[in-house]
Amino acid sequence: MRKKLMSLLLTGVLATSLLTGCGSTDDNTAEGTAATTESKQETVDLANTEVSEETAEITYANFNASGGNEETLQKMYDAFHEEYPNITVNIETIGYDDYFTQMQTRVAGGTAPDCYELNIENFAAYANKGVLAELTGIDTSGYNTTALNAFSVDGKQYGVPGNFSNVVLIYNKDLFDKAGIAYPTDDWTWDDAMEACEKISALGDDIYGIYQPITFNEFFKVAAQYGGGVLNEDKTEFTINSEENLKAATMMISKVTETNVQPTEAQMGGMGDWDLFESGRLGMIPTGIWAFNTFADACDFNWDICVEPGGTQKATHFFSNALVVNADSDKKEAAATWINWLASSDTAAQMRIDAGWDLPAINNEDVLSGYLKLTPPENRQAVFDSLNYLTVAPIIEDYSLMSDIITNKLSLAASGEITVKEALDQAQEECTAQIKLQ
Amino acid sequence: MSKKRQKRALKNAIPFMLPSFLGMIVFSFLPIIISIAISFTNWNGLDKLSYKTLASNFVFLDNYKQILGTSEFWKVLGHTCYYIVLYIPMVLIMSLLIASILNKNMKGITVFRIMYYIPVLTSWVAASLIWKWVLSPQYGILNQLLGYIGISGPGWLTDKVWAMPAIVLASVWKDMGFYGLFLLSGLKAIDTGYYEAAIVDGAGKMKQFFSITLPLLSPSMFFCIIMALINAFQLFPQVQIMTEGGPNGATQVMVERIYTYGFKYFKMGYASAYSWLLFVIIFILTLIQMKLQNKWVHYES
Amino acid sequence: MNHSKWNVKLKIIWNYFLACLIAIIVMIPFLWMLSTSLKSKGALMQIPIEWIPQNPTLDSYRMVFSRFPFLRAILNSFFITCSYTVVTILSASMAAFAFTKIQFPYGDTVFKLYLASMMIPTQVTMIPLFVIMNNLGLINTYPSVILPSLFRAFAVFMLVQQMRGIPNDYIEAAELDGAGLFRIYRTVVLPLSGSAIATLTITTFMESWNDYLWPLLMLNDKNRMTLTLALNSLNGQYGTEYNILMAGSLLSMIPIVVIYALAQKYFKEGLMAGGVKG
């Protein structure tokens, strides 16, 4: 017995010493739990360090280049290094699936890279937990303002938009021809779309009008199209079960439960929505512009795009990944220089477009115009027209939890187990109970 | 045993135990101790892990109280048990079948032995993709086969009731080769002398199986049951890839929740408390198995 | 007489039928992977499944080789996996020997601790272990992925179950011959556990070969990248190139299948070792 106690004690001592050993290497993060910490070390001021003589070697981790764009990123870096020969960047490209698990471990373990990429869901959590450095003094004039603002929390810029994708309505021209109806236009509302959906669905048993995922991501956008939203203006209260939201959710879900112009989960049979479109059995799909390359390869029918239909007003999605600087890094200036260059320099933007990777989140129309020349789709202009109606995701600290609760309730409604109204009421109740808003 | 002999035995054992024991302290025991400490805090899993961080987030038993107070915990535990009740008998029967086929002296048996191991070698990413197709309600092979015998198959992964059995099917398919191989090595280790003696005594096949094979295989069976139990409670990758806990949470299981809380909702303290509750459950069940093994597991020595 | 001959034949046919039936069930996904890896990008997901690609192409395999330093990754994987497997087998078999054949005090308690260590999901011990590795200065070194093999409760448990079946008479006989414990371990217990060790070798090899998350955390340097890490970079935010992934996965399965086929010999030897002593 005594031996057991001794060994337990011993390991306890060992454990504490290992942990404190780690804590003492860096003190300022242990307290920096709140995002509001205004420690000088945690901000990056590029204004007075523009010309730095010292050489710096930094690490940059990203997932955006995985799956085919590693070479492009390398080329971008080569161009950067020519411009800033004193900054060396070690690029780590990691697959998307486990990127965030490994990043969280490295951040918690105190060995996060100097700068890295985050998606919008994780950005909110990281920024609110004070592990990101505030970026001050960087030149942000070249960015698309909506995208840039998405990464500012309480007026502080914690990241720059590294890339940019928005959502458009992609439609199968051949199916529209077969059904003998006119192609969708930019001023369509959901009512117009529903009419077309029913005619296309009538073409065959396994042909469907549209597929729009029943998820939180779609919901907050459609809500905006009907003038609603999941949070009130100053993000202090949930407004999930508002009148406008009910209209929006009803539109989304009745497509499945009532008119069945959108397949149910069982009708999908484990097939992905893109697969369904590629197989030529789907009339319309509101999806990201990153589908273009895949559809160009895979579809043996004609297709084109237009701005997504609206409700009482237009609203479109955009997705952007944040490039951020580690609050713990001792080379913050170099890191900020690199990510700012990568995200907004004309050189990098041009390379991104030429490779057909995705859009840079910049406002330089000359560079962007190169994007229009690529076909299909014919009507690439719709990508830019959609930018006029961008709606920003309701970013809060517990974004993933909110998103899961709402998605879960909506899918319950889509499976017919509860009504749409019940779904929104329950979501409102659970979100209010489980999530503290500032 | 005398004190002296005990001392000598300990001295003898130390060189054999040392590498493994050291490894256990550093790579397993320490992290586990730290995870207990984490379970008493509301650490978010992002702030740098240090003594100071943990101390300043100390909440003692709050996480445990919270978890046990939610209906979610019991629901998820129920799902896990549902999985186990279906999975363990099925995987044991299938692996016994495989082991007994592979133990026959047939020509080309080596080829079969290699083939049966292929699911074990396949990654879950590839395996779950194909299982999604096999289980597809409208186009899947399984429902087509069921259709031939006049049964209209369920929606499997998209159906609340059938999603878990579907995951069990995929898991049995993936794991049976592994346990089968282990049972085979148990079968191979059985002294053929016993069978020869039994045949001389005029014992039939059935009698041989129950009086020789099963008792002598019991240590291997015991291993399989314990490992299957531990692994079943920690069921995760197949759920994550095939259903992500859906439809409507019908396949949410313990480790899926632990991962979600720890790495998606940034509640590492809560996630750690969850896994300690999981630990207690598995540990008790394993202890019961250990006690029961005296009744049915037969060790030769 | 004739009747029983027929019986034997029928039995053989039945055995083969059963064996083939199971073989088909287990091989389906493998064949699907093969067929997918031969498809061009567009033809990937179709209904009904297109088993034989219309325009088979080896492009995916070419891509696997051109996309990343495949050879380098294979060498790294081999080095790590082999070391990992050898250390596991040595350390686990020694511990299992001590647990079963040396009745040392508190042995049972320690063994229960070993078992208990498997019951905590790695998801919650990952960050602590990462911090420990960091404090030991092991991050970005090969030992960080090899050393954890010193302690694998699963392996110890498996060998303990096997070694318990070895009659103590053998040990006592060897002791009377004047053999020391190490010699007994090496010349009596190890050979008699042959088939279990063969099983363990292939399992360990496979696990280490396919291990992904831990190497991802530990090895950031591209030069130390393993094959699984290389393959992982195929999955992107907006989807995965399954044809290349399947080609890569198939290629990465080859070494394991080869090792497994080689280990077959030892399954037979395990049988003989058991048989001789009857």
Compile the SSE list and pairings.
The complex is a heterotrimer of chains A (438), B (301) and C (278).
Chain A: H1 2-25, H2 28-31, E1 43-45, E2 56-62, H3 70-83, E3 87-93, H4 99-108, E4 115-118, H5 120-128, E5 134-136, H6 145-150, E6 152-153, E7 156-157, E8 160-161, E9 165-172, H7 173-179, H8 190-201, E10 208-210, H9 216-225, H10 243-257, H11 265-268, H12 273-278, E11 282-288, H13 291-298, E12 303-306, E13 318-319, E14 322-325, H14 332-344, H15 346-354, H16 365-372, H17 381-386, H18 399-414, H19 420-434
Parallel strand pairs in A: 1-5, 2-3, 2-4, 10-11
Antiparallel strand pairs in A: 4-14, 6-7, 8-14, 9-11, 9-12, 9-13
Helix pairs in contact in A: 3-15, 9-10, 15-16, 18-19
Chain B: H1 3-39, H2 51-56, H3 62-69, H4 71-102, H5 109-116, H6 118-121, H7 124-134, H8 141-148, H9 163-188, H10 192-200, H11 205-233, H12 237-242, H13 254-264, H14 268-296
Helix pairs in contact in B: 1-14, 4-9, 4-11, 9-11, 11-14, 13-14
Chain C: H1 2-37, H2 59-67, H3 70-101, H4 107-117, H5 122-135, H6 143-146, H7 153-163, H8 168-176, H9 181-192, H10 194-210, H11 213-218, H12 227-232, E1 235-236, E2 239-240, H13 242-276
Antiparallel strand pairs in C: 1-2
Helix pairs in contact in C: 1-13, 2-13, 3-7, 3-10, 4-7, 7-10, 8-9, 10-13
Overview of the structural elements:
The complex is a heterotrimer of chains A (438), B (301) and C (278). Chain A is an alpha/beta fold and 438 residues long. Chain A has two domains: 179 residues, 3-Layer(aba) Sandwich (D-Maltodextrin-Binding Protein, domain 2); 196 residues, D-Maltodextrin-Binding Protein, domain 2. Helix content of chain A is 45%, strand content 13%. In chain A, helix 3 packs antiparallel against helix 15 and helix 9 crosses helix 10. Chain A is globular, with a radius of gyration of 24 Å. In chain A, 52% of the residues are buried. About 6% of the residues of chain A have low confidence. With 301 residues, chain B is an all-alpha fold. Chain B contains 14 helices and no strands. In chain B, helix 11 runs antiparallel to helix 14. The longest helix of chain B has 37 residues. A two-stranded antiparallel ribbon of chain C has the order 1-2. The longest helix of chain C is centred in the N-terminal third of the chain and has 36 residues. Chains B and C meet through helix 1, helix 4, helix 5, helix 6 and helix 7 of B and helix 1, helix 3, helix 4, helix 5 and helix 7 of C.
